[in-house]
Design goal:
By secondary structure, the protein is mainly α. It contains 17 helices and no strands.
Length: 394
C-alpha cells in the first residue's frame, strides 16, 4: 500500500474511532436507563396491583394524600406517593406554610415544581409532567456521568458507574415524582464544568442545583476548597459563591411570602428533624442493626451507603479528581450534620462521587460487579412494590 494511502486510512480510522466509541457509550447508557426504568414501570403498574400485600393503615412518617387501606391500581397516581404528593401540590397550588410545628410544602425546593408547571402550560397533566422531568433529567445525569468517568478512568469504569447508578434500588427516585434526577443532572454538570474551568456554566448549573435541594449547598465549599488548593483565578471563587444564588433566591421568597427566610428549615420540625448532628439517632440506628430488630436491614443500608461510600472515597482518594473527592466529602458531612435520619440512603444515592468510586471498584472486580447488579435488580423490584403500596423506603 502506498504510504500516502496508508496515512489517509490511518487518519480516517483515528477520526472515526472516537465517534464510534461515543455512540457505543451513548447506546449503553440509554440501554441501562431504559431497561431499569421498564422494570420500575412494569412492576408498579402491572405487578403491584396483584401483589399479595397487606394494605397500610397508619404509615410513618404521615404522608400527604394517603388513604388508609390503599390498594394500588394502574394509574399515574402511583408515581405520586410520599414526597411526590408534596411536589404535585406545589406545582398545582403553590407553597403554603404556618409555623405550627406541622408538615408544610415549604420544606421542598422549587425547581422541580417550576419545571412541572412549565410542562403543564402545554396541557400535560401534573403527574405526567413530573414523571417526564425526573426521568429525562435522570437520563441526562447518566450520560454526563458516563462521559465524565470515561475521561478520567476509562470505558470500563464508566460503564460500571453508569450501571450502578441506574440499577441502584434508590434509582426508583429517578422515575417517580421526586427531585433526584434533576439534582443528579445539575450537580454533575456543575462539578464537571468547574473542573474544566468553565466557570459560567458551573455557576449556572450550581445555582439551579441549590434551587433543587438544600444539599446542593455542598457545591459551595467544594468549589472554594478546590479553587484554593489549585490556586485558581479569582473568577473561580466568584463562581463558587454564585452557586448559592438558587438557595438565596428561595430564602428571599420565604422572607417575602412567609416573613421567615429560613421557613424551609424551621418546617423540618414537622418531620421530627432538628438541625445538627443527631447523636441519639445514630445510636438508635446502630443498636437496631446490632440487635437485629425488625428494621435492621433498612438501617443497615443507611450505614453502608454513607460510611461505605466514605470508605470508597478514601480508598480511591489518589485516583479521583479533586473536585469529585471533595464534593463527596462535603456532601457526606452535610448529610451527617442535617439531623435527618429518615432519608440518609436516598441522599447518599444523590452523591455522584459515590457512583464514580463504585464504578472504579466494580470495574476491577467484575464478578462482584455482576452479583451486585443482580442484587440491585432484586431490591429495585422490591422497593417499587413497597413504594406502590405506600410503604416507607427512604
Amino acid at each position: 500500500m502506498p504510504s500516502s494511502l496508508k496515512l489517509r486510512v490511518d487518519s480516517l480510522r483515528s477520526s472515526t474511532t472516537p465517534s464510534i466509541q461515543a455512540l457505543q457509550g451513548l447506546t449503553f447508557v440509554v440501554a441501562m436507563w431504559l431497561f431499569s426504568r421498564l422494570v420500575i414501570i412494569v412492576t408498579m403498574q402491572l405487578i403491584s396491583p396483584h401483589y399479595p400485600a397487606i394494605p397500610v393503615v397508619h404509615p410513618e412518617p404521615g404522608p400527604l394524600d394517603f388513604v388508609p387501606g390503599f390498594i394500588p391500581k394502574p394509574s399515574w397516581d402511583l408515581f405520586a406517593h410520599w414526597d411526590a404528593a408534596w411536589f404535585r401540590q406545589i406545582a398545582t397550588k403553590g407553597y403554603e406554610y404556618i409555623p405550627d410545628g406541622k408538615m408544610h410544602s415549604i420544606a421542598f425546593f422549587p425547581l422541580l415544581p417550576l419545571a412541572m408547571r412549565a410542562l403543564m402550560t402545554f396541557g400535560i397533566p401534573v403527574e405526567i409532567a413530573g414523571v417526564l422531568v425526573n426521568n429525562l433529567a435522570f437520563l441526562g445525569a447518566l450520560i454526563l456521568l458516563y462521559r465524565w468517568t470515561e475521561e478520567h478512568h476509562g470505558v470500563s469504569a464508566a460503564r460500571w458507574a453508569t450501571a450502578a447508578l441506574a440499577w441502584c434500588p434508590f434509582s426508583l427516585y429517578g422515575t417517580v415524582i421526586y427531585s433526584e434526577g434533576l439534582f443528579l443532572l445539575l450537580t454533575t454538570a456543575s462539578l464537571r464544568a468547574f473542573e474544566k474551568g468553565q466557570y459560567k456554566r458551573a455557576a449556572l448549573w450550581g445555582a439551579l442545583t441549590t434551587a433543587t435541594r438544600v444539599t446542593g449547598a455542598a457545591l459551595i465549599p467544594t468549589f472554594l476548597i478546590v479553587a484554593w488548593r489549585e490556586k485558581r483565578s479569582p473568577i473561580a471563587y466568584v463562581a463558587a459563591l454564585a452557586t448559592g444564588l438558587g438557595l438565596l433566591s428561595f430564602m428571599i421568597f420565604c422572607a417575602i411570602r412567609f416573613n421567615d427566610p429560613l421557613a424551609f428549615v424551621h418546617v423540618q420540625k414537622g418531620w421530627g428533624i432538628e438541625a445538627g448532628f443527631n447523636l441519639d439517632g445514630w445510636k438508635e440506628l446502630f443498636v437496631t442493626i446490632f440487635t437485629w430488630q425488625h428494621s435492621a436491614l433498612k438501617e443497615l443500608t443507611k450505614a453502608i451507603m454513607l460510611f461505605g461510600g466514605a470508605y470508597l472515597l478514601w480508598h480511591f482518594r489518589r485516583e479521583l479528581s479533586r473536585v469529585v473527592l471533595i464534593y463527596g466529602i462535603c456532601s457526606i458531612a452535610l448529610i451527617l450534620n442535617s439531623g435527618a435520619m429518615w432519608s440518609i440512603n436516598r441522599y447518599a444515592f444523590g452523591i455522584v462521587s459515590l457512583s464514580i468510586a463504585l464504578g472504579i471498584l466494580l470495574s476491577r472486580h467484575r464478578r462482584w460487579g455482576y452479583a451486585t447488579m443482580g442484587f440491585f435488580g432484586i431490591l429495585l423490584f422490591d422497593f417499587t412494590i413497597r413504594f406502590s403500596w405506600w410503604r416507607w423506603i427512604s
